[in-house]
Amino acid sequence: MKRLITGVLASAVWLLLLFTGPFALFWLAITCLAVVALSEYLSIVLPALSRQSKIPLILFGLFPLIGTFSGEPTGLLCGLSLALIALLLHTLSRYASFPQPYEILSRGGFGYLYISLCSAHLVLLMALPQGRAWLLLLTAITAASDTAAFYTGSKFGKNKLCPAISPGKTWEGFFGGLVGSLAAALVVRHFFLPDQGLLWIVIIVFLLGGLGAAGDLSESVIKRAFGVKDSGSLLPGHGGLLDRIDSLLLTAPALYYLLSFGTKLCSGAIGR
Fold first, then answer.
1. What are phi and psi of 238, to 5 degrees?
2. What confidence tens digit (pLDDT) does each residue in 98-115 have?
3. CA-CA distances (angstroms) from residue 236 to 5, 13, 126, 154, 211?
4. pTM
5. Domain ranges, ordered by start, for the chain
6. How do residues 147-182 score in pLDDT, each as one tens digit?
7. Cβ burial, residue 10 (10 Å; 0-12/13-18/19+)
8. N or C end of the chain: which has fewer CB within 10 A?
9. Which secondary structure element, helix H or strand E, spans residue 14, and what is its range?
10. At CA 25, angle to CA 261 and CA 71, rounded to 5?
11. Distance separating alpha carbons of residues 170 and 237, to the nearest angstrom
12. pLDDT at residue 4, as a whole number
């Protein structure tokens, strides 16, 4: 019941923000979510680091999000570059006080790529034409895939998808998730993106469906490496925030570049 209530409340807040909030408020919300996700990540990969020592690492990780306020990918690239440089300089300045300085660099730097860079693409998606509708499509694909995969896998799952990483995931659940995400995507297309071709939506669904599963497994690799079950306890019945957005971290960049370059390539091919 806790899982259901939390899911409904989170979905309601997300949809309200998506359709009624101005761009600046959406950017602020994603930036705040990145703070929580980075905090959870650093608590997993750098458990010996004090809370006070993690604050600068989290602040540096916000530079890519700050860069996206312009709505342009160049701002994101600039912010990411500054974050990595700041992390390096900070580690050099406190080299003697860190027991394992290279762990700060490698694990912190990966966190900026995994969380800051990827989550910033949600803001870039919002800045696109019909950005709110595309974000709704992304949300529908991700949520429907997770839900359908869970119930399909629970009832019909026999063949393990990747037992070494996540023993509970099955191929049956994966394909069930694809079917569920396709159904959800077609509903969103009908009401919010009627000008988009059916084949284009199907391609997006299958690409994002596969990447969403990879994103889920990627977080499982991190948690398994450090013997952690959940990234946190922020969301009752779900674990931490990172446990809920792991699929979005890979699918958001993929959708952004599909929309940025895929449409142009398709138009060029048709023109020839």
1. -120, -20
2. 888 999 999 999 999 999
3. 9, 16, 28, 21, 26
4. 0.92
5. 1-127, 130-272
6. 898 889 988 988 999 988 988 889 999 999 999 999
7. middle
8. C
9. helix 2-20
10. 25
11. 22
12. 63
**Cα dihedral 121→251→193→123 (10° resolution):** -10
Q: Is residue 153 within 8 Å of 168, Cβ to Cβ? A: yes
Q: What are phi and psi of 111, to 5 degrees?
A: -60, -35
Q: How far is Cα 183 from Cα 159, in angstroms, rounded to an integer?
A: 24
Helices assigned H by DSSP within 23-130: 23-45, 51-61, 63-67, 73-93, 101-111, 118-127
Sequence-distant (6+) residues with CB within 8 A of 100 are none
Q: Which residues of the chain are modeled with pLDDT < 70?
A: 1-4, 7, 237-238, 263-272
Distance CA 206, CA 145 (A): 11
The total of other beta-carbon atoms located within 10 Å of residue 255's CB is 26
